From TrEMBL:
Keywords: Cell membrane, Cell wall, Glycoprotein, Leucine-rich repeat, Membrane, Receptor, Repeat, Secreted, Signal, Transmembrane, Transmembrane helix. One of its GO terms (cellular component) is plasma membrane. Residues 1-22 form the signal peptide. This is Leucine-rich repeat-containing N-terminal plant-type domain-containing protein. GO terms for biological process: anatomical structure morphogenesis; plant organ development. It is a single-pass type I membrane protein.
Length: 792
């Protein structure tokens, strides 16, 4: 009875859904059961994922099986079924398959050549299978093949074959993150149906065939992270092209003008060796990244070609000359990054008045002029303003008070002469304030305002002429630093909230299939499209690619010009920590820093600082602070770096300091401290130089005889003239390398928990230092856990 009902049920079902549930032919069932037997699963303890593959039921109803109406198995989707072991050989019996998806399994092993004989195959998906060996390239020539996805098999080698003249049916070709190599055949132009090509992060080289660009249906082309070279020579570009990513290659030469007349929306050419003037031919583009190339000039009419552009980066090129005022005609621009060039002249007045501009980065150029009169519009969108590292002078412009959304202000390393800009006190959104290396003077108290900075993370006032005592009450207005819980990776994002969410969720689903575990944690993060993070953070880059794919899809599928576009930008800030300048490529909400070093602050250190439970770096060195080190410092549980050197501090070192388990850098040298140095595991790792120059200090690691006189205090640039090595140190190089590491470490750190990051960080740091200072190993020995950079 039961079987009869069952049969009737199946019959009914089959009538309703004939294509899917038609009854399976006996020998097909045998083959499938045979296949099931041959499969191994990663977690044998768990219920087998193919429980429905049971001889007493119709095989066309089994999970992952698709049949034709006459019961032939034509589709197998066994993706993400914990299948393991080199089992591809057991698919030889299914030569009539149209669709085979084995993605996200740990199949490993090589790909057998017989798939090339699957004459009906339309879709082959072997992405994320840990495959190795050489992929049999005849499979690309299966005439029915429409999509092939071999991505994320980083040991899978191979090359692309010549393609026959006869029009191929291939629409989508993904080989990203494989070890495919060789050059692209010109005959790829015969695959007239191709719309998506993703060959990113492979080992391809040679020139990019121009035939690629004339594929009539091509909409997504991603060749990033390869070794493509030569000039970009193409005469005609597919009018369907939407996304072009050629970043991280060795492309060179000038890009000839007026070649594109297309719907291109995203162009990413960053990290190549392209030269000449910035190309101006993509009026439809919304995202243009030309950073890290050798482009030398900006055409004066550039703005006329940017009328739709939201993101425009020319950072880290070789640009000279003035910033063309026409750039202000790009009225939709939200992010403009011209940093790290040799641009000169004044900042065009109209730039800061652009209404939609959220990010303006002109840092590290050769800009001159007074900024006192810079005008900001009433409804300014400015969130990030970076003009540090120029030759700007004058006072902090009063109109900045109108930037009610400002989060990051970096005007450091200029020649600004002003008192503390109290007008910023009313901007409650401020997170990062960098005034370092200017001529600021006077006290930092703001008597005429009650404004607070509840989210402030970085305050860098170093190398100015600030003076006076610091009142405890001041600190109370900096709430973020008092937070107790760890923050999460937080980048500053633009675009409407919902759009951002869409991108984030797309990212989350696609990121999880990346085999690299470190990427999995990115679920809650909107990966950045901005180049800075890509440059310095390979993990993020990996996720970026998926984010890119996601956003481009959204882009392609929409008619509304603005939909699906979400821009992001990472703030990079150079800070001094642990005696070295370093560039923090991504500012985490977890990263907090106070640097008041090299000023004339005096009086006692307010005990309230001890309430900054989330403070990572505190540098009060080279001032005239007096009194004792507050014992409340023991409350700063996450403090990693504490520099109080070269002040007039007296009294004992509070034993509470020894309880700061994260503290990896400590400098109390050249004060008037007395008594015994606390003993703890942590303190025993600090070198004598952490304590030297205090007449009254004794105990490990200082030698017993501490009266023999001290070496002279370190000079302003952090190098001791007496350090006994004759090695010229290239501080730029170190700064760059540390920047790289920190950017990576910080991003990973928040994902993998602070502790693991720390281990990694110190190992990486140590390796880099060994490279730069080969003598390091003998000096500090291989047993030292931490590296104290300011020894030199
Ligand atoms: C194909 O299936 C038959 C059973 O139908 C089985 O005997 C044979 O071994 C299978 N061949 C392969 C290569 O799996
Ligand atoms: C197949 O399914 C039937 C009923 O659902 C069950 O009684 C039988 O044990 C299953 N066989 C196997 C091999 O799992
Ligand atoms: C794979 O399967 C596991 C468990 O069923 C699930 O948690 C995970 O999200 C799946 N991954 C993908 C990429 O579908
Ligand atoms: C398997 O791959 C095919 C095409 O390659 C795709 O349509 C299908 O959605 C994939 N299955 C899963 C579960 O991702
Ligand atoms: C291959 O399968 C994965 C799921 O594992 C899917 O995300 C991807 O889109 C598929 N590729 C193609 C080309 O359909
Ligand atoms: C593919 O089929 C041809 C002829 O049908 C045969 O000669 C060849 O050996 C087959 N290739 C593989 C790898 O099975
Ligand atoms: C990638 O291929 C090259 C040869 O082209 C080989 O030397 C290298 O080991 C391969 N890498 C991996 C991860 O398989
Ligand atoms: C270029 O695009 C414009 C519209 O955007 C169109 O009017 C013109 O005909 C196109 N030119 C060519 C050569 O395709
Ligand atoms: C910066 O500008 C000054 C003149 O204002 C010039 O002498 C100097 O060479 C410029 N530096 C660079 C790197 O362009
Ligand atoms: C900095 O500005 C002061 C006056 O404000 C001026 O005397 C000095 O020459 C400037 N320094 C540089 C390096 O431009
Ligand atoms: C600040 O607050 C105090 C009392 O809370 C008030 O008397 C004073 O007027 C306020 N100052 C400003 C500038 O708002
Ligand atoms: C050529 C290249 O950039 N390969 C990288 C691809 O991504 C993996 C991580 O998944 C890196 O390890 C490779 O170096």
């Amino acid at each position: 009875m039961k079987t009869l009902l069952h049969y009737l049920f199946l019959l009914c079902f089959n009538i309703l859904l004939p294509a899917v549930h038609s009854q399976c032919i006996k020998d097909q069932q045998q083959s499938l059961l045979h296949l099931k037997k041959s499969l191994q699963f990663d977690q044998p303890s768990r219920q087998t994922p193919l429980i429905s593959w049971n001889s007493s039921t119709d095989c066309c109803s089994w999970v992952g099986v698709t049949c034709t109406s006459d019961g032939h198995v034509v589709g197998l989707d066994l993706s993400n079924k914990t299948i393991s072991g080199p089992i591809l050989g057991s698919f030889a019996n299914f030569s009539n398959l149209r669709v085979l998806n084995l993605s996200s399994n740990t199949i490993s092993g090589t790909v057998p050549g017989f798939f090339a004989n699957f004459s009906k195959l339309t879709s082959l998906n072997l992405s994320g299978c840990w495959l190795n060996g050489i992929f049999p390239n005849e499979i690309f020539q299966v005439p029915t093949l429409q999509t092939i996805d071999l991505s994320a098999n980083f040991k899978l080698g191979g090359s692309l074959p010549e393609f026959p003249k006869k029009i191929g049916s291939l629409q989508s070709l993904s080989l990203s993150e494989t070890n495919f190599s060789g050059s692209l055949p010109d005959s790829i132009g015969n695959l007239k149906m191709l719309s998506t090509i993703d060959l990113s992060n492979c080992s391809f080289h040679g020139s990019i065939p121009s035939s690629l660009f004339s594929l009539p249906l091509l909409s997504q082309l991603n060749l990033s992270h390869n070794q493509f070279s030569g000039e970009l020579a193409f005469s005609n570009v597919s009018s369907n092209l939407v996304t072009l990513d050629l970043s991280f290659n060795n492309l060179e030469g000038q890009i000839s003008v007026s070649i594109f007349n297309s719907t291109v929306k995203t162009v990413d050419l960053h990290s190549n060796k392209l030269q000449g003037p910035i190309p101006t031919f993509l009026p439809s583009a919304k995202y243009l990244d030309y950073s890290i190339n050798n482009f030398s000039s900006i055409p004066s009419n550039i703005g006329d070609f940017l009328t739709n552009t939201l993101f425009f980066s020319l950072s880290s090129n070789n640009l000279h000359g003035l910033i063309p005022a026409s750039i202000c005609n790009a009225s939709n621009l939200q992010i403009l990054n011209l940093s790290n060039n040799s641009l000169s002249g004044m900042i065009p007045q109209c730039l800061t008045a652009m209404r939609h501009l959220s990010v303006l980065n002109l840092a590290r150029n050769n800009l001159t002029g007074s900024i006192s009169n810079v005008e900001v519009t009433e409804d300014s969108s400015l969130q990030i303003l970076e003009i540090g590292g120029n030759q700007l002078y004058g006072k902090v412009p009063k109109s900045l008070a109108k930037c009610t959304m400002l989060e990051v202000l970096n005007i450091g390393n200029n020649n600004i002469t002003d008192s503390f800009p109290c007008l910023l006190k009313n901007i409650s959104t401020l997170r990062v304030l960098i005034l370092r290396s200017n001529n600021f003077y006077g006290g930092i108290e703001c008597l005429n305002t009650n404004g607070t900075w509840p989210g402030v993370q970085i305050i860098d006032l170093a190398h100015n002429n600030f003076s006076g005592e610091i009142q405890g009450i001041l600190w109370r207005t900096w709430r973020e630093m008092m937070a107790t819980e760890n923050g999460s990776l937080s980048t500053i994002a633009f675009g409407s909230h919902t759009k951002r969410k869409t991108l984030a969720s797309m990212t989350a689903t696609s990121c999880t299939r990346v085999s690299d575990k470190s990427c999995r944690g990115y679920k809650n993060v909107v990966p950045s499209r901005a180049h800075e993070s890509c440059l310095s953070d390979p993990t993020n880059r990996l996720c970026n690619r998926y984010a890119d794919a996601g956003s481009s899809n959204a882009d392609a599928g929409t008619s509304n010009a603005d939909d699906g576009y979400s821009l992001e930008y990472s703030v990079s800030v150079t800070v001094t920590s642990k005696g070295l300048e370093m560039e923090l490529v991504k500012i985490l909400s977890i990263f907090t820093l106070i640097d008041f070093s090299s000023n004339n602050f005096s009086g006692p250190i307010p005990t309230e600082i001890g309430e900054f439970k989330a403070l990572c770096v505190l540098n009060l060195s080279r001032n005239a602070f007096t009194g004792e080190i507050p014992s409340k410092f023991g409350n700063m549980q996450v403090l990693e770096s504490l520099d109080l050197s070269q002040n007039k501090l007296s009294g004992h070192i509070p034993p509470q300091l020894a309880e700061l388990t994260f503290l990896s850098f400590l400098d109390l040298s050249y004060n008037q401290l007395v008594g015994r140095i606390p003993t703890s595991n942590q303190f025993s790792t600090f070198p004598p130089s952490s304590f030297t120059g205090n007449k009254g200090l004794r105990g490990f690691p200082l030698t017993v005889d501490n009266k023999a006189g001290f070496p002279p205090p370190p000079t302003m640039n952090g190098r001791s003239p007496n350090s006994g090595h004759h090695h010229e140190v290239n501080w730029d190089l170190i700064s760059a390398e540390i920047g790289f590491i920190v950017g990576f470490g910080v991003a990973v750190g928040s994902l993998v928990s602070c502790k693991r990051w720390r281990k990694w960080y110190y190992r990486a740091m140590y390796n880099i230092l060994l490279k730069i200072f080969p003598q390091l190993e003998e000096r500090i020995g291989i047993h030292r856990k931490h590296v104290h950079i300011n020894q030199w």
